[in-house]
Amino acid sequence: MTSPNRQIVFDSVSKFYGEVLGVNRVSFALDPGITSLVGPNGSGKTTLLNLLTGLIKPTRGSIHVLGLTTGQPVELFRQVGYCTQFDSFPPGSTGYDFIFWPLRLHGFGREQAARLTDEALERAGMTQVARRKVAGYSKGMRQRIRLAQAIAHHPSVLVLDEPLNGLDPIARAEAIALFGALAVQGMHVIISSHILEEVDRISDRVVLMSSGYVVAEGQIREVRQEVRDHPMQILVRCSNAARLASAAFELNHVVEAKIVNDGRGVLIRTRDAEQFYLRLNKIVCSGLIEVEAVAPADDDVDSIYQYLIGCNGGPI
User: Fold this and answer.
1) Could you count the other beta carbons within 10 Å of the beta carbon of residue 118?
2) Which residues 6+ apart lie within 8 Å of 168 measured at CB?
3) 187 with 128, same domain?
């Protein structure tokens, strides 16, 4: 069991802006690794990140970050790096200035701040343009310099609000590799993102949010298994789609068997994927059908999230 001093803990946290709900009754504990917040605009993701970093205080409940409360701003700064999505920089500043001077303002000596700045620039791939003014950067470069600032002081928790926005495919792959490397080192990497295929690929766990509530939290497959009333879709490419569809309809747990447009496969919706796979093996062994490929069609964040908010539309 992970020590509380290594966890991020939300205990029945609510935040209201007057009569407007930000988040309500949020409770979970996160271990080190990559955690992704998923949800549309207005779901409460940014409020949750701002609460985590101590930028705003909860209306009710408590938050502990590696044993610290969000009421300890100086100590929290040393532990947390925050890369926001807001594209705002001091007028006339260079990329180097954007990292160096905040380190100095927070008590790092000149030599140490310079070393940390150079190291962060290198890790974010921004060394060659560090002395250029940020005003001349592309959107992707501005995103990367914000990331460099967030990791410069070697935090234990890295909070990233839409960190992949504006990055080209190569820069996105490099950023994802960096997130993974930081997580392997034992860091908490908290990512808010709407790029669901990336979230699905890189996350150790997800927090799914809707209308200020957490509707599910955990590893992707764990969340998927908990949603037992959600029929799983399986695409089977085969030599005789009609025969497979007919055989599938004989199974009580299959709720739909639809031949795909090209006639070379069947989309199965089943409430018991394991039993379907066992039946499919018997069909293949009988020699009546040749199967080319079998793949889950919706075992991902997007389908799970859409199902959860469609069925619940609020807290669970």
Assistant:
1) 16
2) 140
3) yes
244 and 168 in one domain?
no
Residue 33 has pLDDT above 90, yes or no: yes
Domain boundary among 165, 183, 218: 218
Same domain, 136 and 34: yes
Q: Both 129 and 233 in a single domain?
A: no
| CA–CA separation, 293 and 255 (whole Å) | 21
Q: What is the pLDDT of residues 248-277, one digit of tens each?
A: 988 988 988 999 888 889 989 888 878 888
CB 268, CB 233: distance < 8 Å:
yes
Question: Given 168, 196, 218, which residue is the final one in a domain?
Answer: 218
Model confidence pLDDT, tens digit, residues 199-215: 667 888 988 888 899 88
Q: What is the CA radius of gyration of the chain?
A: 24
- Give the alpha-carbon dihedral of 163, 169, 170, 173, to 10 degrees: 50
Look-up of token digits 């271990």 = 31
Average pLDDT for residues 17-31, to the nearest whole number?
93
